[in-house]
Amino acid sequence: MYELKLNKKNKRIRKSKCSGKIIAAAELSEDINKKISKYSEGVSAVLLTSIVLVNGISVFFRYVVDSPLGWTEEFLRYAIVWAVYLVVGSTVYRGEDMVIRLFESLNNKTINMIIIVLSAISTILLTIVIFIFGIPLVISNLSQLSPTMQLPMTIPYSAVLVGFFILSVQTVLSVISKIK
């Protein structure tokens, strides 16, 4: 199962014969994670740009034309919610999530991996709780419409579910990519 190899400093190291497949899986998960992060950040950037533009239009119509647009506040609120939840998974990909970093200074790979896995498990458990309570909430609001835009309220409420789904996928992919 294991074979001994020499590294660059001519020290003997144990290397698994199946480590090539593990490394390939880790690299593939890293690539998928990067693409998901890039896409969600791109959509969020478009939303943030539209937020700035719509806010500018709102200010113009309110103070220059003296005829405020009612739908802009609602759009801004829902767009901000979507922008935030779309990029919540990217924090895991970039390593900017809130994890206990206390033991990283020990340079002990086993302890670091245990912390990474425990953090991932807690994130997945939180996602399950969000889905258990969030799906019925979204379904119960199928017929409710927003006041000014007449947008189905399932759209803003589903931002939480989509964001946590992306978070859980990126969490699993990040753990796989760190197994190298």
Automatic annotation (TrEMBL):
InterPro entries with a match to the protein in the record = DctQ (IPR055348), TRAP_DctQ (IPR007387)
Where in the cell is the protein located?
A: Cell inner membrane
| Membrane topology qualifier | Multi-pass membrane protein
Endpoints of the signal sequence: none
Report keywords, A-Z: Cell inner membrane, Cell membrane, Membrane, Transmembrane, Transmembrane helix, Transport
One cellular-component annotation, GO: plasma membrane
Q: Where is the Tripartite ATP-independent periplasmic transporters DctQ component domain?
A: 51-179
Give the record's GO biological process terms. Answer: C4-dicarboxylate transport
Residues passing through the membrane, by range: 43-63, 75-93, 114-135, 155-176
A single Gene Ontology MF term assigned here is: transmembrane transporter activity
Role of this protein: Part of the tripartite ATP-independent periplasmic (TRAP) transport system.
Membership in a protein family? Belongs to the TRAP transporter small permease family.
Query: What is the annotated quaternary arrangement, including any partners?
Result: The complex comprises the extracytoplasmic solute receptor protein and the two transmembrane proteins.
Mind telling me what this protein is named?
Answer: TRAP transporter small permease protein
Q: What is the native source organism of this protein?
A: Vibrio nigripulchritudo SOn1
